[in-house]
Specification:
about 25% strand, Glyco_trans_2-like, about 250 residues, globular, Glycosyltransferase, nine-stranded mixed sheet, alpha/beta, hexosyltransferase activity, Nucleotide-diphossugar_trans
């Protein structure tokens, strides 16, 4: 079973090497690594040049943002399974991909997802909060629950059948895709109770007040687009549920 891992990066010189190293140290060998660069002007390209033998497909050009770049990577992927690792993030251990593959095979699932740690941007060993997932029902999603997107691995054929990331939802494009796949089309997704990703804090949905406001609006649009009744309830519970992560 071939895994396509996609990293999107733009001026990511500070952390991109940690990201790449976490992939090339994986015990599982059948990995296709795709890097989509948005035309970086810092030393990102110089760093990536050191690992060109580990990168199967590399594109560097301007794009319309993160999700446009992800769609480029998805369209280039040839693996059975597609996963995403953001340039600031790291796979949590060398066995992550092999365990994900085993989970797919045992359960014959469409998707596998796991747990995530938010870590300090300057010290990846310092955990800020934990995102502990669980097996879910359609009701859970209606009540605002969702797996951690960076831990979600999907069969490639789903993108052909159910479409890629929509660029109409801004920073909520990942949330909208998960609603579409998991809620509207109810694909078979299996929970792997393992830490999959260490994610540095400071994502584009969690920065300034203005960005948070736009993220809220985009979340609401994503919920409505997938025909969830009482979308404001889903939105409010979704936001409140994040508080639980600080208690773990």
């Amino acid at each position: 079973m071939k895994i396509s891992l996609i990293t999107v990066v733009y001026n990511g010189e500070k952390y991109i090497e940690d990201c790449v190293k976490s992939i090339i140290c994986q015990a599982y060998s059948d990995i296709e690594y795709i890097v989509i660069d948005g035309g970086s002007t810092d030393s990102t390209l110089t760093i990536l040049e050191k690992y060109k033998s580990n990168i199967d497909c590399f594109v560097s050009e301007k794009d319309k943002g993160m999700y446009d770049a992800l769609n480029k990577g998805i369209n280039l992927a040839t693996g059975d399974i597609i996963g995403i690792l953001n340039a600031d993030d790291m796979l949590a251990s060398k066995d992550v991909i092999s365990n994900i593959v085993t989970c797919f095979k045992i359960n014959n699932s469409d998707a596998v997802y796991g747990n995530l740690n938010y870590v300090h941007p300057e010290n990846a060993n310092q955990i800020i909060r934990k995102w502990i997932s669980k097996p879910f029902t359609k009701k859970d999603i209606k009540l605002g629950w969702m797996p951690a997107h960076p831990t979600l691995y999907l069969k490639r054929e789903l993108f052909n059948r159910l479409d890629n990331y929509s660029l109409n939802f801004g920073s909520a494009a990942d949330y909208e895709l998960m609603l579409r796949y998991l809620y509207r089309y109810q694909i078979k997704a299996v929970f792997l109770n393992q830490l999959v990703v260490n994610m540095r804090t400071g994502g584009m949905s969690n920065a300034s007040f203005k960005q948070r406001y736009h993220a809220l609006v985009n979340d609401y649009k994503a919920i409505k687009a997938n025909n969830i009744s009482f979308p404001i309830v889903t939105l409010l519970v979704k936001k409140l549920s994040k508080l639980k992560q600080y208690l773990h």
